[in-house]
Amino acid sequence: LVVRAGDPWITPAEAAGFRTTPGYDEVGAWLRKLAKASPLVTVETFSKSEEGRALLMVRASKAAGAARPVVLVQAGIHSGEIDGKDAGLMLLRDIALRGKDDLLDKVDLVFVPVLNVDGHERASPWNFLHVRGPEDKGTEGNARNINLNRDYSKLDTPEVRAMVGLLQRLDPVLYIDCHVSGGFDMQYDVTYTYAGWGKYARHRATASWLEQRFGPAAKAALTKAGHEPIVYPSPIDTRAPEKGIRYAPEGPRYSTGYGDFIGVPTVLVENHMLKPYRQRVLGTYVLLEAALKLAGQDADRIAAAKAADRAERPAQLLTRWKPSPTPIGWVDQFKGVAFEMYRSPATGRMEQRWTGRPITFRMPIIGQDPVESVTLPKAWLVPSAYREVIEKLRLHGIRTETLEAARTLPVDTVRLHEMKLARQHDGRIPLEARFEHERTEATIPAGTVHVVSDQPLGLLAAALLEPESQDSFLAWGLFPEVLSAPAGTEDFVIAPILDALLAANAPLRAEFERKLAADPGFAGDPEARTAWLSERLPQRDAFAGVYPVKREL
User: Fold this and answer.
1) Please, what is the angle between helix 458-465 and helix 255-262, to 10°?
2) What number of helices (H) and strands (E) belong to the chain?
3) What domains appear along the chain, each with residue ranges and CATH number?
4) Whole-angstrom Cα distance, residue 76 to residue 120?
5) 3-class DSSP state for residue 369?
6) The Cα angle at residue 545 between residues 543 and 528, in degrees rounded to 5
7) Which of 173, 246, 408, 522 could form a disulfide with 69 if both were Cys (CB 3.0 to 4.6 A apart)?
8) Collapsing DSSP states into helix, strand and coil, what is residue 171?
9) Which of helix, strand or coil describes residue 276?
10) pLDDT digits (tens, 9 = 90+) for 227-256
């Protein structure tokens, strides 16, 4: 697959013996040169990055302008995991100029060489220390240090907003996201996976196609080319690989999870970090070529699977799970690598040192058991004041309508208790809480945005709007108002009101007395006593501890 030195169409990585990878400007110049040389290739800008760099996409097609199935390949969402970029350049060259144009007989290829372009241009040998080559690598986060592969649900970055827009525009038959793994040493060099490792996918028809058709085709092509492929083994404990690998559901924050929620077959490529860069790039080339062939053969079959998934109207959303107590399966001859332990002077503890000696062992597969599911409501009601949330729903392509007149509806109001802020990550400070649901009838004002669950993206809407969802806008901290303290008043005003509440409500009085007896700290804290009783007044603060989105029942 590698052309000889001096070839006029050698890629920059090939010319460097895969020791280095080209900068973004060099990539753009090489692609524009290829587009001038071949009528099959066009280059365009589909958006701009946080720092204003152009996001490039390349389309390789035999039928420019025609509506054809598309395979969308994305590289460099983590810009230090850049194998897909250099593999894609080689494959595009061979399609355009070296006789592999038959790959375009039934499908188009759309290739995004680098999604995280700002991180890509911050290349350094100190980035991605665990990844073996190229010499200088980009960063994981973008210009604001936001991990783009955690942003598909919350859409905080222009790069992922652009990619979600591209997914809507192209509606690909296959979406491939190229990465490099972390984890432990092993003999496998090219690994791949899908949302929930297939088993726990939210949509079964597209998941079945990935498991039954894509996986075997990719494995056969890679094995024939001399690689060691396997479904990506996500380790339970990198220090003890024998504890097993994890299969688990995914939320829509990830490319694979998002593809599952919108009904697009999506593949995560995870090349092994310790394999030479040249080997990883060539493995990615083989996988992408096999994917194009298969997508062309199965375009109608994939379209039917997508349609079946989008016709589904799930009644529930799984929101929490826990590891199964016993393995759900085994890899009988897992091809691992031996390691030894040594005491590190720096860390003061025993650390791993991989020996390179191949071993095989029986690897358990650890699945997940459901812990919590929520039943989807008829619709969600988003107040008009929450413009950022409404805009994000529309960017996702979720169908919404604005109420032109007030409506009185049966609703579920969600109150938050034991609220706490989690550790900041990916540009947000997530919120955790315990939820209490109250069924009432409420008058919903005109201008409220009505989001029905009975739509193709109803499950995605649920993942974004159900408070229990780990990828909800609430969980990501888009409703900071819920943390506000209720409006206060003078002690001499509230005390007799609370005295009257206790006098008139015997069950509440009994509950209060039990709490006083059980908790001396509470009993001796006038502010805590006042807050506890104030929360139980019939007219409470409309913001403090109240999720603004109501659920229509």
Assistant:
1) 130
2) 16, 19
3) 12-309 (3.40.630.10), 376-553 (no CATH)
4) 8
5) strand
6) 115
7) 173
8) coil
9) coil
10) 999 999 999 999 999 999 999 999 999 999
